[in-house]
Write a structure and sequence with these properties.
Largest sheet of chain B: none
Strand order of the largest sheet of chain A: 13-12-14-11-15
Structural class of chain B: mainly alpha
Helix content of chain B: over 70%
Largest sheet of chain A: 5 strands, mixed
Radius of gyration of chain B: 24 Å
Number of strands of chain A: 17
Number of strands of chain B: 0
Radius of gyration of chain A: 25 Å
Strand content of chain A: 15-25%
Helix content of chain A: 25-40%
Structural class of chain A: alpha+beta
Oligomer: heterodimer
Chain lengths: 533, 315
């Protein structure tokens, strides 16, 4: 009898122990977060900024999503969302999803496979002429291999690919790939979107606030924990930080806390939980290779040799940024090349003086010297995070007889100017929605991409991009990816200065948030976040 | 007086018409339009998508037609559609006007309530410690940018009281609203109060040296009567002029104050609208500001008549 009681007590204790985390979460409360600027719209598919994804991802669902409990987004860590399961055809060109039934849009209408078709038809330009669901698409290149979307029933949809593409599922798992409602119109999706997600949009007041409330009909039972999320648009960073310190906000905007600011925040709010993580945004140099003087490959090489990445890192990130080539380096990055390989690339060696001496020799051969420097302008967006590295670059260029001048460009016409090739050297920031070679290489380096700002064209690299994209063996694919990174570095195609690392802080009462380490654009569903008050 | 008023109103209408042309043309001279910006914000520069948006918003129509459409709409009370929010411009502008209006009035109230009495005291107690102190304080008011002062106030508030007086939630009543707006109003009004104080002081000093003041004193009038009944009323004319100018100038000061204190008013909204080239919002807001300035100028001119009976506006 005693042993039975002991067994029962032990079982109960074990159950309590296992169940404790499930019981620990508290329902209710409003999460208050500061937002850094006015989002251009609420339509995630039309925009390319964290300002849109972070507040609005919680309104939607994807077909699949990167496991929100994992810090690293990886193809092995993709979990079902609106899709219950998925399978590939034997030739890997048909990806079929079995969808959840009983899911409803925020307006009460049922979700079905037609909505999935509508969304991706709009993204690949196959939508009905009258449809205005999406008026601009910055990620066209993600879906260049998607040929068709077919619907077998309300709960089954198939993506037909031109060739096998293992990255396709990763792209669907990104925060940038929500499913839109077929019956919605573009204007509504930009101002007060409906989704199937854990939170509904109550109000999106420009320049003021975004209010989300709990979706009581959310298909994932018991979620979300929060009653509401209240975003306040506070354009002044000092006010945002002071607001967080004073307890006005539970969380800072993502990556809003720079390293110099971090010590201030911690000094004033000792219990703040702050996490530094790579943003998968890299600072890189745009070189206009189609016009003199940088049409000469030797000159481009000399420029790359002048760069001292450590100095950039020390000044801008107090040494916390990551050194890497085109892909985010490990351990946060899934695809980046190992350190020893990286150090063999031009511009990555540790002996900066040796590199610069080589750079000066090249410049001297081209007829430049200390007394006869090459005069250029370094164009950049007139925003501090762009200007700061540009100023450091100007200083470093002096080491190879380049006398550069800062050319700050109004942010509204920056891409226009770059597209027109109206620059010689530019300082740029590139953020990646997914830590994946396809999204990075196709977007930024493939000759057919309209976001390949430098119009870098290398048929060999194009072929390698295609090759890695279709490669199903992960290890073989990594080797091709590293080969591409090496060629890009040797060609001086958008030389990477560093991969940014920034801090996000929140109050200790806020629980359940897992920051994704290799892309700031994922993991903002907020359905597992709760407030311990 | 009647025909003066008619002439004055006609002139006001003409000024506003001139302003409408100026703002319309100037906005279009600035590089980039909303189509450029919307496409650029997404990191792309696809001319087809840009042209589609421009057509949707009517930006492909001739300039004259666009101007006519705007002015025609204005006369009917239709302010058009905001480009960014895609909502009627009136719905975007209207809720913000009372917030900025209250802030401006409170700032003006602070400026006058501090500036005029301290100016008088400073003049009456010329070359005393009090005068020197007030002059130093007023000098700091003129020198401190309101942006910086606002941040200092916020930092001090967080440091000493653990709270931050920013506008994060809509106030629930009159008193809460006054409480929320009082600090930013004081910050933005500090500069104006300093200006008004210095002007009141110098104007008072000038008037107090006039013969009629000496006459009043020799007739045995009390100091209070001389200073306030005889001197101040006459010294107020230039002060009223500067208050009128400052009322318009305060709108400019509001831009930074609204940003620092996170107040969802008109000024911050205007800056954002300019950034996005949201023509309907910018055009209508600038016209509104022009209307306020023209009206305040008119009211200042009318106030002269009440302050100085010698001033008459002849027909």
């Amino acid at each position: 009898m005693r042993s039975r009681v002991a067994f029962a007590a032990g079982t109960l204790a074990a159950f309590m122990l296992v169940a404790a985390p499930a019981f620990a979460q508290k329902q209710g409360g409003t999460l208050k977060i500061s937002h850094r600027d006015n989002p251009p719209s609420a339509s995630i598919h039309e925009e390319a900024t964290i300002s849109v994804v972070q507040p609005f991802m919680a309104v939607f669902n994807n077909l699949v999503v990167f496991d929100p409990s994992e810090k690293i987004n990886s193809p092995d860590k993709i979990v079902p969302d609106l899709a219950e399961s998925w399978s590939y055809s034997p030739d890997q060109t048909k990806l079929t999803f079995k969808l959840r039934s009983g899911v409803k849009w925020h307006d009460g209408k049922p979700f079905s496979a037609k909505d999935v078709k509508c969304t991706w038809d709009a993204l690949i330009g196959k939508a009905d002429e009258k449809s205005d669901l999406i008026r601009k698409n910055p990620r066209k290149v993600w879906y260049s291999n998607l040929k068709d979307v077919t619907v077998a029933s309300d709960t089954e949809v198939t993506f037909v690919l031109g060739r096998p593409q293992p990255s396709f599922l990763s792209m669907l798992a990104a925060g940038y790939s929500p499913v839109y409602a077929c019956h919605a119109n573009g204007r509504d999706m930009r101002s007060k979107p409906i989704g199937t997600g854990p939170f509904k949009v109550v109000d999106f007041k420009r320049n003021e606030s975004i209010k989300l409330v709990r979706n009581p009909d959310y298909w994932k039972k018991g979620r979300p924990y929060l009653d509401a999320i209240d975003w306040k648009i506070v354009p002044n960073r000092s006010t945002r930080m002071l607001g967080f310190v004073a307890g006005e906000f539970d969380m800072t905007f993502d990556s809003d806390v720079t390293f110099p600011m971090l010590s201030d925040v911690k000094a004033q709010k000792a219990d703040a939980v702050c996490e530094a993580r790579p943003t998968n945004v890299n600072a890189n140099i745009l070189i206009n290779r189609d016009a003199a003087p940088f049409d000469k490959p030797e000159l481009r090489r000399a420029l790359v040799l002048s760069i001292d990445q450590k100095t950039f890192n020390d000044i801008l990130f107090q040494g916390h940024a990551l050194m890497g080539a085109a892909m985010l380096p490990p351990p946060a990055g899934v695809w980046g090349m190992p350190k020893e390989m990286l150090e063999s690339l031009p511009g990555f060696g540790t002996d900066i003086e040796k590199n610069r001496a080589e750079g000066r020799k090249i410049m001297e051969k081209l007829g430049y010297s200390k007394d006869k420097p090459l005069k250029i302008k370094v164009a950049t967006r007139n925003i501090a995070i762009y200007r700061d590295p540009a100023v450091i670059l100007i200083d470093q260029l002096k080491s190879i007889y380049i006398d550069a001048e800062l050319d700050p460009i109004d942010t509204t016409v920056w891409y226009n100017k770059i597209q027109r090739k109206d620059y010689s050297v530019g300082m740029n920031l590139t953020g990646l929605g997914v830590d994946d070679p396809d999204t990075n290489f196709y977007e930024n380096f493939h000759s057919a991409s309209d976001r390949n700002y430098t119009a870098y064209k290398n048929p060999e690299v194009d072929a390698l991009i295609e090759k890695q994209s279709a490669e199903l063996d992960r290890d073989k694919r990594k080797k091709i990816v590293w080969e591409i990174e090496k060629k890009l570095a040797e060609d001086g195609a958008r030389p990477v200065i560093n991969h940014n690392v920034a801090n996000t802080c929140w109050t200790p009462q806020m629980k359940g948030l897992v920051l994704q380490q290799n892309s700031i654009y994922n993991g903002w569903r907020f359905e597992d976040v709760w407030l311990d008050r | 007086m009647g025909s003066y008023l008619v002439r004055r109103f006609l002139l006001m209408a003409l000024t506003l018409f001139g302003m409408s042309i100026l703002i319309f043309v100037m906005l279009r001279l600035v590089p980039g339009d909303i189509a450029d910006i919307l496409v650029d914000a997404a990191g792309i520069a696809d001319p087809k998508e840009k042209a589609k948006i421009a057509k949707e918003l009517g930006l492909d129509r001739p300039i004259i037609e666009q101007y006519g459409k705007w002015i025609g709409g204005l006369t009917r009370g239709d302010l058009g559609f905001a480009y960014v929010s895609e909502r009627p411009a009136i719905e975007e502008i209207a809720p913000r006007i009372p917030i900025s209006a209250k802030l401006t009035l409170m700032a003006l109230f602070f400026s006058v309530i501090l500036g005029v009495p301290f100016g008088v005291i400073s003049a009456v107690r010329q070359n005393t410690t009090l005068d020197y102190s007030l002059r130093v304080i007023s000098l700091s008011g003129l020198s401190l940018p309101s942006f910086w002062l606002g941040l200092l106030v916020l930092m001090a508030s967080v440091h000493w009281f653990g709270t931050i007086p920013i506008y994060t939630n809509e106030p629930r009543g009159f008193l809460q609203e006054v409480g929320l707006l009082a600090i930013p109003a004081a910050v933005v009004g500090f500069r104006s109060s300093a200006l008004i104080m210095r002007l009141t002081r110098s104007s008072m000093l000038e008037v107090m040296r006039q013969d009629y003041i000496r006459t009043a004193r020799s007739k045995g009038a009390s100091n209070t009567s001389v200073n306030y009944d005889h001197a101040l009323r006459n010294a107020l004319l230039p002060v009223v002029t500067i208050i009128g100018i400052e009322a318009a100038f305060l709108v400019g000061g509001l831009i930074v104050t609204e940003t620092v204190f996170n107040i969802p008013g008109v000024a911050r909204f205007l800056v954002e609208a300019i950034r996005w080239r949201d023509y309907p919002i910018v055009q209508n807001l600038v016209m509104l500001i022009a209307f306020v300035v023209v009206t305040v100028n008119f009211l200042v001119d009318m106030a002269y008549m009440f302050l100085d009976p010698r001033i008459k506006y002849a027909d």
